[in-house]
Amino acid sequence: MERFKTGTPPRLLAGSIDYDAVEQQVEEGACWRFSSRGGARFSDRRAVCFTTRAGSRAIDAARSGIDGSPLFDGSIGGRGPRYCPSFEDKAARFPDRLEHPVFLEPMGMGGRLVYAGGMSTSLPRSAQIEMIRSLPGCGRAVVASWGYAVEYGYFPGECIGRDLRLAGTDNVFLAGQVCGTSGYEEAAGLGLVAGASAAGSAAGDVGRFRPQGSESFIGVMIEDIAGSNLEEPYRLFSSRASNRLHLRQDNAEARLLARAVSSGLSRPGDEARLRMMERQLEEARTVLNTERAGGRLLADMCRVTEFDVGSLGAMSGRLAALDPGVVFTAALDERYMGHVRRAEGRMREVERMSSVDLSCVEDFSGIDGISWESRERLQKARPANMGEAALIPGMRPSDVEGLLIGVLRMVPRGTKTGA
Question: Which CATH number describes the domain made up of 2-30+44-151?
Fold first, then answer.
């Protein structure tokens, strides 16, 4: 096993915070369920989040206590998540930053605890309380539990199968940080697949549920993890998907309910609901591409960003008779169709250009249009061609495209690229 590290911020008593001194974070307004089963109404209650700022007092407190942090005194040596550094790490690495945002997030509806997002720390308690009470709105905050850091073991990707089975075992399936991930949502997604794989193994139906990266973010994550050796705790970003505008929350059922049915993971009535949804989607697409309003095709209107797709029902009686969620999905399919097709075309072009020679690149860190994370990986791996670059663990599809564009700009016109 290998070792990574992670940490967590202190939790505060909700009643000890002065909410008049912090800024409320207004939600975007969209209401999404984790499941469309059932007809439960949305509650008007909201778990409201707030923001405050950690200024010079908090930064000074972090720096003064840094010698007592196991992240800095050598007690913990594993690599931590790049995008979730501890507060003391931010204070040390970004000395010119005069303040950092802190998010006060209630831990549940009506709960008594608040999560101080952005203040992950393993500093001594004296430093933590100084940091917390320097925040606007937290001058009298009571700490319910202190922040801490831990080092944890994980299996390299070569030990993990696409069904999350541990190599060399018959019935051990992995999920969560033991796979090298960092984050609640990543653990939940892996747990779903590991549980389904374990159930399939027990029923003698091995590997029946293997989501693909082309159809789900869970599939993207598993493709990134299984068989790959991670260099840092893995976080799932939308940019890791080759066609992220197709992987939307509104079309999750259209993408995955058929797989649930075919994998034996559906509930009674799901298959009938799937067939009805498929019929309605086909009907909605037909209407959008045949009916007009004000002389314009409805599908063309959907492609205008400012157009409210929620008004389609008032423009067509046939659409008004369909499930509003299905109409919404069909409308967004039309809106993003051009982007989706271009993304598919770009990936085909990358595959076609996989033999492009990269010997002309002396310094990958100087190529614009790709993330610093991928620049570091490229600089370390020094791939000989585009095909090798695309296979580097953690390389995002968007960065592979950016690399190809950057390389082609370096090549004089008329030069053969090897494609």
Answer: 2.40.30.260
